[in-house]
Design a protein that fits this description.
Layout: H1 2-8, E1 24-31, H2 40-43, H3 47-59, E2 65-66, H4 82-89, E3 101-113, E4 118-133, E5 141-145, E6 148-149
Length: 150
Amino acid sequence: MIALLLGCQHQFPKNTNLLLAGKVQVQYFMSIKDTTYSKLWVRNFNKKYLYENTIQQVFNNNFEVYNPDNTDFSKSNGLMKKQEILNYLNWDTVSNDYDELNEIVFWEEWQVDTNLKKFTKVVRGWAPVRDYFKNNNKSRMVRRKIFYVF
């Protein structure tokens, strides 16, 4: 038994990253809804400015956005058109009502280098998230990503 255990021991090279296996893909939601319990930066965050400018840039074709149903974190699901975005927002035309956009989902890549004692976090994309009640039923809250910005 001891020989078996000793045979299973493995010495990792000094430069082996034992904390994370290479690069890790991470996706998480961040609330930017202003409540009495919000942190100071959230209370002072101008979400209308962020969303209004982003959506205007998208509709003016200044940058491309991609389908939020993308599950492989790539651009393979294609570009979104203005009408698709309006449908996801439940808008007939461009609106200034951003009340339902209370979260942002980030897609990041994390890497830990144990030799350099360095944690690298790169934002690969983000998406505004719409929170709304399905069919005005207060018990059926839906969270919907609108588009991905890469």
